[in-house]
Amino acid sequence: MPPSAASQEKRNIVIVGGGIIGSTTAYFLTRHPFYNPSLHSIHLIEAASVASGASGKAGGLLALWAYPSSIVPLSFRLHEELAKEHGGEKRWGYRGVSCGQLDIKGRRLGDATAGGKGNPPAVNPVHDEAKERISLKKRSNDSYQAHQAAGVPEDLDWLVDSNIQSYDSMGTPENTAQVHPYQFTTSMAQLAQEKGAEIILGSVKSINYKDNDNAVESITYMAKNTNTPTTVPTTDIILTLGPWTQSLLPHAPISALRAHSITIRPSRPCSAYAIFTSITLPPQFRPGAKNKRPQHVSPEIYARPNNELYACGEGDTLVPLPPTSAEVAVDESRCQDIADYCSAISDELRDGEILTRQACYLPQVESRAGSGPLMGKTSIKGLFLAAGHTCWGIQNGPGTGKLMSEFVFDGEAGSARVEGAGLDPRNYGL
């Protein structure tokens, strides 16, 4: 493709937001055929630190069965290509995984807790045959037959067999994979830096317009640990702010949902599975509890390389979105709930060590026009939006970054159909 006249003009490109979308956008801008570091400047401005929000605290699941279908195949393929090119298997834990929906009965916490590292001391411990059986890495004939009857793969051996009700496969290593989100996001930012992108830590205060607000002119930000605003001229501004989008684009239909998660070092390495659970907790799940009816909870549990496991719970809107990702409040009780649910179904997780208790905010698109994400041009010349990726931000990051680089340098997306797929920000009056 011959360079366009516009691509040969000096461009001052500013990306606002250093999560997965901003980092992959910077990466693909620096890899675009028209990118010329002597003509084009690329600045990535992040208020806290790269991957300090959901992009560093997500599960990192990748799937061809994710949504939206218009960009998922592109992004899934790019994940594989990036891993091959940059050693992603070692650098950010890229690998294929199996995925399934699991229905299982949980054990009472007093029965399930043996006082593993990072967990509460045992309460009324009892003899647990399942624990002995798994610690020896053996199964009785009855256990093995029950495991098969429930449809559980043979190598998914880090759950309490006798409590499993059913297992339904959702994905295989051919159509499902994973990355470590923090490692992947920071690697994308570093690789963009190596090709000329500059990362600035600071908070953007305003976007400045010209021509009766019909085009961007400059952006004003406050560098971290300073009180002096800086204004830089811009030809292109790409907003990749996730749940903070409304701070600069007030009418964007993007809200925030808080989510808690933990990471665990299990007592032994767990096979490569991503599990969507449906756990039935018994009455009086916790010692001293008064509830007399079973409860149903559904944490997601992902085994990772290097003997680590990630588990997340349901979202909440109890605490408003703070000014930056560095100020996100963590509810320790919600993290402990997740740990307790894991203990209720797995000895390896019960006896493991809790490494991290964390929270983040996911962007949610709220509009009858669609469910997001929003990506592409806005009605203002030079202003682009790429936000609202919900829980599939890591999965769709490379595809989004690739498409945004095409919007900037080519004037339109060429690698996937976006503008007619309900993702156009202009459909939302932006």
Percent of residues in helices: 10-25%
Q: Unreliable runs, pLDDT <50, ≥5 residues?
A: 113-144
Count of DSSP helices?
Answer: 11
- Taking the alpha carbons of the first and last residues, their distance comes to 30 Å
Strand content: 25-35%
- Global structural class: alpha+beta
Strand order of the largest sheet: 10-9-8-2-1-11-19-18
What does this structure look like?
With 430 residues, this protein is an alpha+beta fold. The chain has two domains: 224 residues, FAD/NAD(P)-binding domain (3-Layer(bba) Sandwich); 189 residues, 2-Layer Sandwich (D-Amino Acid Oxidase, Chain A, domain 2). It has eleven helices and 19 strands. Strands 10-9-8-2-1-11-19-18 form an eight-stranded mixed β-sheet. Strands 5, 6, 12, 13, 14, 15, 16 and 17 form an eight-stranded mixed β-sheet that branches. Helix 1 links the parallel strand 1 and strand 2. The radius of gyration is 23 Å and the shape is elongated. It starts with 10 loop residues before the first strand and ends in a 20-residue tail after the last helix. The relative contact order is 0.22. About 7% of the residues have low confidence.
